[in-house]
Amino acid sequence: MRRAVDSPKNAHMNCSACKNRGPKTHRIKCAPVPLTKAQLKLILVSFDRNGDNRLSKQELKDAFNYIGSHFPSWRAGRALHRADDNEDGYISEGEMDDLVEYVSQCGYTIS
């Protein structure tokens, strides 16, 4: 399955050091780069596994795990608390901007 964006864990492969010398000779550590809100939204939307245009707690947990959260289940619960305005237990399209804002404030990076 192709993903909408590169995996944050493998994003360093796009840095100039890796492109010029290849991954096996990569000797410098790339500086972490914050994920943009557009990248975060693409990542989050890609975890709508059942295509119902909303994110469940499990889908959020999977998304937080993907972007490198140390406590994805806890983050998913906090995200629902912060962004689920109608308290139906899902993040719908109308609540997505609040979710993206919350995730952006968490400071996830590509390293």
From TrEMBL:
Residues 35-70 form the EF-hand domain. The keyword Hydrolase does not apply. Gene3D superfamilies: EF-hand. The keyword Nucleotide-binding does not apply. InterPro entries: EF-hand-dom_pair, EF_Hand_1_Ca_BS, EF_hand_dom. GO terms for molecular function: calcium ion binding. Keywords: Calcium. Pfam families: EF-hand_5. This is Calcium-binding EF-hand family protein, putative.
